[in-house]
Design a protein that fits this description.
This protein is an alpha/beta fold. The chain has two domains: 89 residues, Rossmann fold (3-Layer(aba) Sandwich), CATH 3.40.50.10860; 124 residues, NAD(P)-binding Rossmann-like Domain (Rossmann fold, 3-Layer(aba) Sandwich). The chain contains ten helices and eleven strands. Strands 1-11-8-7-5-6 form a six-stranded parallel beta sheet. Helix 6 packs across helix 10. Bound molecules: NADPH dihydro-nicotinamide-adenine-dinucleotide phosphate. NADPH dihydro-nicotinamide-adenine-dinucleotide phosphate binds next to helix 10.
Amino acid sequence: MGARILDGKALSKQVRAELAVRVDALKARGVTPGLAVILAGDDPASAVYVRHKERAAAALGVEAFTVRMGEDADAAAVQAEIDRLNADPAVHGILVQLPLPAGVSADETAALLTSVDPDKDVDGFHPVNLGRLVAGLDGFVACTPSGCMRLIAEAGVDPAGKRAVVIGRSVIVGKPMALLLLQANATVTICHSRTTDLAARVREADIVVAAVGRERMVKADWVKPGAVVIDVGMNRDAAGKLCGDVDTAAVAEVAGALTPVPGGVGPMTIAGLMTNVVRAAERRISNAAGLR
Ligand code: NDP
């Protein structure tokens, strides 16, 4: 059996085309959606990610305001920028690119993320938005999990009544992913580094989402025939080749549908970010009109 390969690039193009119509409608009302990115430090991977986001914004007609700060930026300096962007009406979405420079501690990073206005938190990392997700209220959902949900829909699978296994429990991927699947009425198991007999848990699943960061960990004999397998992982193998958490070539013989790495979840994450920025601008108009 050959799994259907879920093309995240093509799907993200479709999402961006849908968004372009909404951006035009906003512009017709005199509003240009604005995304501010704080890029502090000289992490090369972060610079690449931010460039991708800037390009996606520009292609959509979203204005990107990137604030570049040096490796010497401390928590107070980043805080001052967040405060300024929170108050700037041209900015609808704020994203703090992680990791912050080494001089900013983990506690300071958490405090900085919490200081972003929840209505501009297009990454969906703010505890208010995480709480809204838990409570089933309207809010911003983290971009990677929402992109994964769209890929599952693209596979033609309704999660309702299905067994879903999420491997990984991070705040930015695993936990919101599990909550979205639960919201869609799947029966969800969250696995992590202390899970015993991971292979057996995965074998029970109709939907598998792997968000671990371990190259090709999910093997073909872990996968139930016909399952949808979403590979969030981004790893470099010994040869320096980009690969996911799933042993793609072998799993493709068993799964019903599978996302590739690259070209699966990655492009959908950026599409999810753009969706949140457009929604932030739309919500501002609705709130101003008292329509919320
Ligand atoms: P984290 O490191 O924050 O979380 C990894 C999770 O995997 C943890 O919950 C950890 O468990 C679990 N884990 C580690 N080892 C095992 C194991 N042997 N068996 C089962 N579970 C295990 O990573 P992220 O969630 O931030 O990212 C996960 C992957 O997704 C990374 O490769 C990252 O690069 C990629 N990523 C890709 C994105 C994209 O756009 N494509 C966006 C975001 C992330 P425990 O909690 O017990 O430690």
